[in-house]
Specification:
Elements: E1 30-31, H1 32-35, E2 46-49, E3 52-59, E4 63-68, E5 81-88, E6 91-106, E7 109-116, H2 123-144, H3 152-174, H4 180-213, H5 218-229, H6 238-245, H7 254-262, H8 270-282, H9 285-303, E8 310-315, H10 321-329, E9 336-342, H11 345-361, E10 366-372, H12 376-379, H13 383-388, E11 391-396, H14 405-418, E12 419-430, H15 438-444, H16 454-460, E13 469-473, E14 479-485
Parallel strand pairs: 8-9, 8-11, 9-10, 11-12
Antiparallel strand pairs: 1-3, 2-3, 2-5, 3-4, 4-7, 5-6, 6-7, 12-14, 13-14
Bound molecules: S-adenosylmethionine.
S-adenosylmethionine (SAM) is lined by residues 252, 254, 257, 290, 316-318, 341-344, 347, 374-375, 397-399.
Length: 489
Amino acid sequence: MSVTIVPNVRSYEELTGGVGKEVFFRAPRVRARELFNLDTSFDSPSVVIGGKTCQLVNLSISGAAAIADEDDAAKFDVGNVVSFELRHAEAVLHHGEARIVRTEPVFRGIKVAVQLTDHPADLARLRQRYSEETVRRRVDAIVTTGADAVEAEYRVLCADVLFLLRTLKETLAIGTPIDPAAAEVFLRDCEERVWPTWSGFFLRGNDLLARARAQDGGAARMKAMTELLLTPEFLSAPIWRQTIQKPYGYPGDHVVMNHVYDALSEGETLYDKLMHRLGVRSLLLIQSRMRQIVEILKGKAALGPLEHPFRVLNLGCGAAREVSLFLKEGVPAQGALVTLLDQDSRALTLALEGAYREILGAGANGQVRCLLTTFAKLIEPGNLQQDVGAQDFIYSIGLLDYLTERRARALITALYGQLAPGGTLLVGNLRKCRESGEWCSEMICDWPMIFRTEDEMWRLASEIPTEAKRVFMEPLERVYLMQIEKPAH
Ligand SMILES: C[S@@+](CC[C@H](N)C(=O)[O-])C[C@H]1O[C@@H](n2cnc3c(N)ncnc32)[C@H](O)[C@@H]1O
């Protein structure tokens, strides 16, 4: 028998326990999404604190956090002991009392933290009861209303999508070209033939989704059916898999974006490759808006200021492909200082690699610094705003699409404040239109985003005290860009 020696065994003197805030150990909190394995909002449990229904954020054996409606803020007095219930529709999963220990405003309402005062929450049992209730609820929904709960026209659309995808899968399995170059030509040809039908599904899906939203629970029922019938057909293609499964815990990560920027025929089988190509083509607006931003950025950089490096800030930068292009082609003589902000270190690592390749390899006169943090820190007055300093060009694409009007307006106002005199702010948001990807992203991929009209874009800048604003579309007309200039004096 061999003995395995564990390397780096430490002495008791070297064992430190927690550091910083970790010293004050408390029962681990589990996010509601993980605890209940939530994949759709249809089945979310709710928490009722002092009679007010809130959205559960996390739970531990001794406490919970939830988001309450802003209008109920006055009802939660810190220190008060109130009733505490965890519910799944009509079923009560936990009933007891809790003390309100903290409240704080967050952008979706008021975050309320409570400590259970009478008996602990049994997480394993809650999870079990929750899944039993979910099954019961779903079976009830099927036997009482069945597929009729979703409009017949939508069921026809699902059948049409399935028919196309399964026909493609079966047909492409027959005629596999061996030579990669021949496969590429073949796939391009298939894509051209399929595209008109495919994009027609988007129009029908968007129209029907708009109708479903007008009915109470209509969109949720539509989504439940779509996820059951259509979503599995997409999973074998890389871009769809990444989009649907969200392995980094949030939608629209840099892997999805990079699939679009690279636009390759990725996947194992011809069917997977074709589906990947269709996914990329549906998202080409990402390439289009990025190219337009580079052009605007280069144009502004060429104008100055001349006395110091051109200062650029990019929020929610992802892999920042446009920064590499800017460093390659657009840095002015006085140089550039680019600040990249994202909450994901994997994205920042790629962004840095791309930027250094240009700075070191191609000799671009630029510097890059990264901030691994949330954009929210720039809204709050404080250290980060000072550290970042005044900027000549601030832009953000692919971030506003996730923010409510109130939050997006607060961000735009804060960013305008961060501009140096004469600086430019440029933000992008998906355009609400019949051709948009709304149905596909929300119903098939569980990737909800906020598509905005032109009026809604203007509203986001209503607090900005300048006339120098414009709202325009990128060439594919799927994204609105809003450009705001701060007066030089
Ligand atoms: C849809 S991607 C867009 C990336 C890039 N701008 C592009 O167009 O390729 C959204 C990016 O926002 C980042 N993000 C999401 N929430 C954020 C937050 N609270 N603070 C900062 N970045 C965030 C994500 O990590 C992701 O890289």
